[in-house]
């Protein structure tokens, strides 16, 4: 372990959690078990069943407007859950490569300043990843438990059992249990998938911070003179980091699209419900959806800023004190970091805080149109 940083032990704990999360998504807990081959198809089928249950709930004859809209919202949410559940197993090998690369950046380097930067940034990343499950469980489970409690109290169902509608009073307890299990399953899946995405994003952000600190070392002429390979290591680390980040964006390409579009649908109907029925659980759902969208846009803003800083950081170094050969390496690195990039929606629209405001405006506009038609 002497060739790794002190926080390497913490990363190993994190990697075990990630491996467990991947096993949960693919249902591959035992070697040679049948789920190793077909387990990744079982959870999408469960999501499909819950979606069919929501569709069946729309045909309940005595359902009121609040029931029907909540059923639609759950159906929209299942689109998001299904996309994430299918995307992660499909790119499992790419995720393994990212985890191996993150493990490799915990190696001790020859420059103490870089080792100190890596130690601090990676330790901070680990601390944030420990907080993520608590936030996700508190947010998602809190919102879901509020509306489940409400509908259980009033004796209404928003997730029916396919083929067993209309609902008879003597089977109401059975329907409530089915509704509870369906919601808990969906919440568990979205917590696991969001934990995978957010925790990896946090570690990649920490790697960008290490790169920025490595670039700052170029201002120390004596240090660069002693370490002739240091500039080359910056170039290699920059290329590897860009490759890893682009792989991450590729893995969650469809997840980001599904999350954005489903959030728009969520907010439109939630704004409508706030005007029609100001029940306490609607506020909890609205806060949860806005927080989820806010986190996505905030991460997009952070990564856009970090990738955009690389060019400026290189330009502000004492590159003019380097040899002509080393200046060419700096120029090539600057050329590869001219354009800032972050999260993209459908490969076209930048996901950032500006988009967060635009989504809120769009949802209010659609809500106003929907309200005028009622």
UniProtKB/TrEMBL annotation:
InterPro entries from the UniProt entry: 7tm6_olfct_rcpt
Membrane-topology annotation of the record: Multi-pass membrane protein
Compartment list: Cell membrane
Transmembrane segments: 41-60, 131-150, 157-181, 187-211, 251-274, 280-299, 353-373
Keywords: Cell membrane, Membrane, Olfaction, Receptor, Sensory transduction, Transducer, Transmembrane, Transmembrane helix
GO terms under biological process: signal transduction
Any one GO CC term of the record: plasma membrane
A GO molecular function held by the record: odorant binding
PANTHER family: ODORANT RECEPTOR (PTHR21137), ODORANT RECEPTOR 19A-RELATED (PTHR21137:SF35)
Family: Belongs to the insect chemoreceptor superfamily. Heteromeric odorant receptor channel (TC 1.A.69) family.
Protein name: Odorant receptor
